[in-house]
Amino acid sequence: MSKRRPVALSDVQCVSLVQELLRERLCHQKLPDQPIGLDSQHKHLLELLRRTAVHGESNSVLIVGPRGSGKTMLLGCVLRELMSLKEVQKNVLLVELNGLLQVDDKIALKEITRQLHLENVVGDKVFGSFAENLAFLLEALKKGDKSSSRPVLFLLDEFDLFAHHKNQTLLYNLLDVSQSAQTPVAVVGLTCRLDVLELLEKRVKSRFSHRQIHLFSSLSFSQYVDVVRQQLGLPQDFPDHRFSSQWNQSVTKLCEDKSVLEVLKRSFNSSKDFRTLYSLLFMTVSRVSVSHSTLCEADFLESGRLISADSKANVLHGLSILELCLIIAMKHLNDTYDGEPFNFQMVHNEFKKFIQRKSHSIHKFEKPVVMKAFEHLLQLELVRPVDSGVCKVQREYQLMRLMLEHGQVMEALQRYPQCPTDVKQWALSAFA
After folding, report:
1. How far apart are CA 345 and CA 329, in angstroms?
2. Cα-flanking dihedrals φ and ψ of residue 155, to 5°?
């Protein structure tokens, strides 16, 4: 009789541990040792900030790239490596600002004061301008003589939003200081706008070094699949070796499955952002249970369907027949008038024509009831006013646009329970 390998954990314990481990991994992502496909950008930025931190050389640089391209990750990796240097650890100061939070210069200056721990130094002093206040703050960081100023790294996330501040005072003063030799300062801006320099005033632009690091992901699909394999794999030190071995084999098999690769390819083509991928993997892992202890193809397919679900199409499934009829009437008007805006009165007339000529299943609704249904579509943002409401126009005559595509409405009609045949036929004539 052959000896069986003793199971370290029960199936319930194994599944519970897998769920905890993978959810923790997917929700709390750690910075990679080296950003994938960004070697040259990493080297460039590290050298730039090292010159400020170690040699006291002021710099300014913009990290430009679409959302999810790895701007924050790149900066995080560089700062971690920089702060590991002995001569940097106790000397460099970091100030992190975000254009979404620091919406004007007054708030930004308060945040700079707080992060530099200079509230006590500033006290109740009154300054004439932002420049004087900033100069005082930087002066307060000096240890005694001019040669011993502490380097400060200003990190400005959503950099383009600071360009909308009055007179661009914050940007002007930070970039102006980065040009002077008195205080070592590095200004690092992160933005997803390629035309960010066009937003800057001439005096601000002249003080910027015009160094830009562009991030366009060179990630290949095979690397993307490797990341999936790594993220879903169990570590070697997992308590139950038998379970982890079976799990890792099933993950490897899944990463070679044709239908799973199609789901991943769709995700890869829509966005190379790892955050989107981790959302997909998290939903897949959430389907694991004691009775379903390994991942399968159906888990990926269902997660892919849920994550790519059209939110507007989902809203349509909850509409009344009257509201669906109004949307079809709007589509008729769009086709008739080549996409020109319409108003409620036009929609109501189109709907009345349908009831009089073609419909035997829809009751005649009073105009106030139809208006109520129209307003509900407006609240759901399926219809949007062309004008922001500056001109006071009667509700019936306010110009609107339909915010739906052909496929979204047709899908809603097909999935609508007991949808009258004449409404479907009317829709087909509208979308022909």
Report:
1. 11
2. -110, 115
